[in-house]
Amino acid sequence: MKILIVGAGIAGLAIGWRLAEAGASVEILERGRAGRGATWASAGMIAPGVEIGGEESALAHFARESRNAWPAFAAELEQASGCDIGFREDGSLIVAANDMRERELQDRARHLSDRHLRAEWLSPSALRAREPLLASDLRGALHVGDDAQVDNRALGDALPAALARTKARLREGCDVQALIVDKDRARGVVTSEGAIEGDAIVLASGAWLNGVAGVTQGDLPPVAPAKGQMIALEPPADVALPKALVWDEDIYLVPRRGRLIAGATMEEAGFDTSVTREARNDLLAAACRLIPQAHAWRLSEIWAGLRPKTPDSMPVLGETAIAGLFVAGGQFRNGILFAPMVAELMRSIVLKGTGEHAYAAFDPKRFQRA
């Protein structure tokens, strides 16, 4: 079985890796460089404790299952690629800047604990003892112990390296322009390098999922770009960054290999990936409210990425109304978190024609039925 995957972000690469391991013939087609889109632009957070909390839904279950899969996924990928992807399990701290937020987070700590999740309220003194760089006027923090992170840029290099040790083929600089559909079945794609035939096609092209020609309106689920701008700060060499992910209502901070990443804006700006002075200033001000001495740190980078978002903010994973045409998209803010489960679920759907019933909510055809 020959499978063509359109898009070499974390979803396309992880799916291709799992399919190749299962013995399928795989070609991944990427118009640019592998791992240099939303995967490269993200913050690498694996944080269902903050993003999902104690919610009970198909999305929450998927997020927790994927979080639980990450340690083995990371170890296997490092072994297969020879790359250190910086997987860390240091948890999250959601800080409280006022009385109302303090009460809200204390209630959330009890709620999460009642659901047997690792969560505890930290008093101001306990917070300062744990993370002395944080502002002294914070009222405490909710510590969510199971949240983690990975170096997303190292991840974007590790997956192609792991793929190179399989029989999968990765074609960079190969722009997919249209699908070839005959008798309501996908037969291949038209690319900048010519037509390529396949028995199955998986669209994993992120925010660009709807940009391929050869299908009529409604054949593909609606996915739109949600722009996010981020900055990175570099402290002096003798400053020890926080260990945990740090969140408040306006920003998150991610310590990563000697830099502090701060993000992210949420903008409806189409496919614009330019950066703005306003976003830089807002992110810097918010970071300095949490870590006052950060105002003296060097601003080393500012960038923007495009998150793929569906109207209901849930992923689209499965076969479309066109036989042999599959999609893996709409991960929105959680592309890194979801990656292990996206790869496993899509392998099952593409090769066996079945996925877990629990994830029927992610059926790409749900928008046609709406």
Describe this structure in words.
It is built from 10 helices and 19 strands. With 370 residues, the protein is α/β, with parallel strands linked by helices. It folds into 2 domains: 212 residues, 3-Layer(bba) Sandwich (FAD/NAD(P)-binding domain), CATH 3.50.50; 142 residues, D-Amino Acid Oxidase, Chain A, domain 2. Strands 5-6-4-14-15-16-13-17 form an 8-stranded mixed sheet, with helices on both faces. Strands 8-2-1-12-19-18 form a 6-stranded mixed sheet, with helices on one face. Strand 10 and strand 11 form a beta hairpin.
List the helices and strands and how they pair.
Elements: E1 2-6, H1 10-21, E2 25-30, H2 38-41, E3 45-46, H3 48-51, H4 58-81, E4 92-95, H5 99-114, E5 119-122, H6 124-130, E6 141-144, E7 148-149, H7 152-163, E8 169-172, E9 176-182, E10 185-191, E11 194-197, E12 200-203, E13 224-234, E14 245-247, E15 252-256, E16 259-263, H8 277-290, E17 298-309, E18 316-319, E19 325-329, H9 335-352, H10 366-369
Parallel strand pairs: 1-2, 1-12, 2-8, 4-14, 12-19
Antiparallel strand pairs: 3-7, 4-6, 5-6, 9-10, 10-11, 13-16, 13-17, 14-15, 15-16, 18-19
Summary keywords:
370 residues, alpha/beta, FAD/NAD(P)-binding domain, D-Amino Acid Oxidase, Chain A, domain 2, 2 domains, six-stranded mixed sheet, 10 helices, 26% strand
- Distance N to C terminus: 33 Å
Biggest sheet features: 8 strands, mixed
Task: Look at the structure and name the CATH superfamily of the largest domain.
Answer: FAD/NAD(P)-binding domain
Write down the secondary-structure element order.
Answer: EHEHEHHEHEHEEHEEEEEEEEEHEEEHH
CATH class descriptor of the largest domain: Alpha Beta
Strand order of the largest sheet: 5-6-4-14-15-16-13-17
Helix count from the secondary structure assignment: 10
Mean pLDDT level:
96
Cα-based radius of gyration, to the nearest Å: 21 Å
Structural class: alpha/beta
| CATH-derived topology of the largest domain | FAD/NAD(P)-binding domain
Using DSSP, what is the number of strands? 19
Going by CATH, the architecture of the largest domain would be 3-Layer(bba) Sandwich
Measured by DSSP, the beta-strand proportion falls in 25-35%
Shape descriptor: globular
